[in-house]
Amino acid sequence: MVATLDNSYFEKSKTFFESGDIVNSLDTYEKAISYIDHTKDKSSHIQFLNQVLEYCRENELTEEEAIVLRSLGRTYSLFKLYVESLKCHEESLKIQRKLGKKLEVAEGLLFLAEDLEVSGNYDKCVDSFKDAANLFHELGKLRKKKDIQKEIKRLKEFSKEMVEDEYLLHKYNIDKF
Fold first, then answer.
1. What is the pLDDT of residues 142-170, one digit of tens each?
2. How many other C-beta atoms lie within 10 A of the C-beta of residue 118?
3. In 26-174, which ranges are E strands?
4. I want to staple 28 with a disulfide (CB 3.0 to 4.6 A). Which of 13, 40, 93, 148 is the partner?
């Protein structure tokens, strides 16, 4: 069933794109992301999004370009291509900031934080979460801010444990074996 839903949304997204309906193409692809089987061929998804990205850039569709970059980042992340994902998320955030899209920036910061966590960059991850929390606070989305603060607390506790473990390993020369 997962592959069917992915293919259905993905095929609809491609059909919308072919007909020139970029907005519906991107909306439908956002639904497809939830159903992507990360164990299967990634090239069709990435190739499609790069095609949409190129179209947006050629036609100066800046807002849509940012959305495509975020979708591309999320897709790279699903396929565990975190370096590429981070690049796309950061590029998308630059555009969203220029456009003054606070909600989109806040959401993009969450995706960026997830990739930073996976890559082990906890300090930058916490910074990204804090920035997102501040934006959600400004937007009056206090529930979202509270959820992010829980994530920050979890990460800080995990980071503290890692430092303590590293200290003990080093102190007793355990890491030399």
1. 999 999 999 999 988 877 766 555 655 65
2. 14
3. none
4. 13
